[in-house]
Write a structure and sequence with these properties.
heterodimer, A: mainly alpha, Rna Polymerase Sigma Factor, Chain: A, Arc Repressor Mutant, subunit A, 9 helices, 76% helix, B: 306 residues, mainly alpha, elongated
């Protein structure tokens, strides 16, 4: 994969990967950090090995899942976030790329409901209903049969409805 | 919220996108990074032995067992004078103790032979060798007693023949040892005495086997006579012993019918043992004639010869 091919792949998948991470980590800055790590790791993957990757999208999502797990693992030992520091009156220099995603109260509740789901349910909701990945694509990412994905989707949606009703 | 409303709301999340400036900056930044820094191939790392801590409870006893076993194995190749020779001697004694009772004499002589071979390989260590020589003499003296204690006549004959062969081998090795002439002669004499006793046992056992039927018949007749003469005395016997004797007699009858004379003889000896227990040794000895007496040549019973 040369630079042009990588650039195309990056542009096609950046938004989806970012959203996938954003719904799992809550903070925009964290989502940015993890997204950059995901694409950097993919770019730095050994060229020969990268050529053998049959499904680059599934590979990138797998890197993302691992990075999120690593993030929460580190959180257990390092609990002080930038926001917490800001709340304590410590001034954090804003980078030129810092931005905050503003959501309506209704959408914020829906986001919270997604985050309260089991990880496998929230992942599948994001992929299928937000990022329009087909059941076939999700099956390839999770290495499961399509029928299993359909069952999982049904259960995930039912679970999300319950969470929404609870929050409202 | 209905499912349709929920799905519509979820679609609205598609509007969430990263800052375009940040996206461009990230792309340029990534492309400027050196490629192929990360490999998905498994990394080869030095083995860590930290896992050993998890197996501590097993490893420590295993280590000691290994050391213990290695010492025993190593000790088997040592000679007198070596500190580990005591371990070898201990192992050999354990072999004698653990050997089946009937084959103990053969094992004892096998080990005596091995010790003599060790003695022949060392020229110094006089004190050690003299002590070993004494122990071998004791072993040789024990062998005839152990042979007499074998109850099955055919086994006793087979083991006695093996013992005879071993004593001959021992006799040959004694000459090769570095013992003083006096000690060598004493040991040679002990071997000779053992050989004579074993030979006598072989002859006696062979005769008993060959003349078994008539010998047994005489024993039965004398037993009948004994019980007739001591009918009043039998009243003081425990009922269990009388029952045992009855069972033995029934078994002897069956063995005789089946042609198993030697097995019947063993049971007859068990009866004689019970009678002995009741302090009637003299009568029992008188009761049990030898094969020679049975054939008119005179002699002692198997019990009285003990």
């Amino acid at each position: 994969m040369n630079q042009d091919e990588f650039s195309k792949f990056y542009k096609d998948n950046l938004d989806k990967v970012f959203r996938f991470i954003y719904f799992r980590v809550d903070k925009t800055e964290t989502a940015q950090d993890i997204t950059s790590q995901v694409f950097l790791k993919y770019w730095q993957t050994n060229g020969e090995a990268r050529e053998k990757i049959k499904n680059p999208q599934a590979f990138v999502y797998q890197i993302a899942r691992n990075q999120i797990i690593d993030f929460y693992r580190r959180q257990k030992t390092k609990v002080v976030s930038l926001d917490e520091l800001a709340e304590q009156g410590i001034e954090i220099p804003q980078t030129s790329f810092a931005f905050k995603i503003e959501l309506s109260l209704e959408m914020e509740n829906l986001k919270k409901a997604i985050q309260r789901l089991k990880p496998e349910y929230s992942e599948i909701i994001i992929w299928h209903y937000i990022d329009n990945l087909s059941t076939k694509e999700i099956a390839a990412i999770l290495n499961k049969k399509e029928n299993n994905i359909r069952v999982l989707l049904h259960r995930a949606l039912e679970s999300l409805k319950k969470e929404c009703n609870t929050l409202s | 919220m209905t499912e349709k409303e929920l799905l519509t709301k979820l679609k609205e999340f598609q509007g969430i996108k990263p800052n375009s400036d940040w996206a461009n900056w990230l792309l340029n930044n990534i492309l400027s990074q050196k490629k192929e820094q990360v490999s998905i191939k498994p990394r080869v790392t030095w083995a860590s032995f930290s896992f050993l801590r998890h197996y501590q409870k097993v490893l420590i006893p295993s280590f000691f067992i290994f050391i213990f076993a290695s010492t025993f194995v190593f000790a088997q190749n040592t000679l007198p004078g070596n500190p580990l020779y005591a371990v070898k001697t201990f192992t050999q004694n354990a072999r004698i103790v653990l050997a089946p009772k009937d084959y103990k004499p053969v094992i004892r002589l096998q080990i005596a032979k091995s010790r003599l071979e060790d003695m022949a390989k060392v020229s110094d260590q006089e004190k050690e060798i003299a002590l070993m020589s004494q122990n071998i003499k004791k072993d040789l003296a024990t062998v005839p007693q152990e042979l007499k204690a074998i109850s099955k006549k055919q086994v006793a004959l087979k083991v006695s023949q093996q013992v005879q062969q071993k004593t001959q081998e021992i006799s040959n090795i004694v000459q090769q040892t570095n013992l003083e002439n006096k000690d060598k002669d004493e040991l040679e004499q002990t071997v000779q005495e053992t050989q004579n006793q074993v030979l006598a046992l072989i002859i006696q056992t062979t005769e008993e086997i060959n003349q078994c039927p008539s010998f047994l018949q005489t024993n039965l007749n004398n037993l009948q006579q004994y019980f007739t003469d001591n009918i009043n005395f039998l009243a003081s016997w425990p009922a269990d012993d009388i029952t045992k004797i009855k069972v033995y007699i029934a078994d002897i009858s069956n063995d005789m019918k089946a042609g198993n004379c030697l097995e019947a003889m063993e049971k007859m000896e068990s009866i004689n043992q019970i009678i002995k227990i009741h302090s009637l040794d003299v009568q029992v000895e008188n009761l049990a004639p030898t094969p020679e007496s049975n054939s008119g040549s005179g002699g002692s019973t198997p019990e009285s010869s003990d």
